[in-house]
């Protein structure tokens, strides 16, 4: 077992084992700054350059929040991605950490019929990875329960500056009463900052 510097040694033991198996010995500067803040449960804007560890941070903090437990049928974590291709990439990345565990990860996108998504989600999931349009359609059709949602993360959130994605995000979050939001991006775009007036109130900004 590798000896971890903070904040890895504060993560769930199964995450520490996974990191050791991937030979990831110590956190990046971004992970040192962001993981303790995200673990506290507050809303966070996390901005850092490409290849600084944002995606791994998203995965680690999501899995740590869910404690590697499968609970109920409704998703307790949502991850929003720009498009189908990126959603599938994130799904594969999550599976590397969740295989041989009880956690159920599901990926949806607009190319997959919404009725199929509804029926598969109904069977029970813990983490839902989706695109803005697909997620919004599910919400409007009551295709996914948000009653147990704990953490909502957005990967490479720059795509939310597009009007359609921005509107979809606002529509989605209007239905969620209580949840932690974490937005990852390379830069803080003025459109992203507008979310502070909606669901990102009292948010912490972490920059690298």
Automatic annotation (TrEMBL):
Gene3D superfamilies: P-loop containing nucleotide triphosphate hydrolases
Pfam families on file: DEAD (PF00270)
InterPro entries per the UniProt record, alphabetical: DEAD/DEAH_box_helicase_dom, Helicase_ATP-bd, P-loop_NTPase
Domain Helicase ATP-binding: 35-192
Species this protein is from: Jejudonia soesokkakensis
Keyword terms: ATP-binding, Helicase, Hydrolase, Nucleotide-binding
Name this protein carries in UniProt: DEAD/DEAH box helicase
A molecular-function term among this protein's GO annotations: helicase activity
Entry keyword Kinase: no
Record's keyword annotation contains Electron transport: no
Organism superkingdom: Bacteria
